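Figure S7 source data.
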Amino acid sequence: MKTGSCLCGSVAFSFPDGPEKVTACHCSQCRKTSGHVWAAFHVPLADLTFSRDGGLSWFESSDWAKRGFCNTCGSSLFYQMKGEATINIAAGAVDEPTGLTLTRHIFVADKGDYYSIGADGADQIEKY
Ligand SMILES: [Zn+2]
Ligand SMILES: [Zn+2]
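Tokens for the predicted zinc ion complex:
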């Protein structure tokens, strides 16, 4: 099992070993919500178990998705498409060793104007 939490610990969760590939999204919504770039991976919703969720709140960020965050410390934690049986978990929330590797940048055409995406070996996709 892997574990993760928000910064203050009001939200803590676990999921089975397995996810390895992380996607970094550079769209404006993800930059706003995360403070820079939203890097996440997905697991089946049924695989996500909460040991603490007292601080968990959800924000409907678009007609098609909602974002989970800690209402005490503000950590961005989850992204879920409506009606999907999977949930995206913030890579930065996972405790080390994560076993994760960033393999893909998406919405690079929408990236912020204040940085460059370095040649880190990960694929770069204009939109999605
Ligand atoms: Zn917190
Ligand atoms: Zn995005």
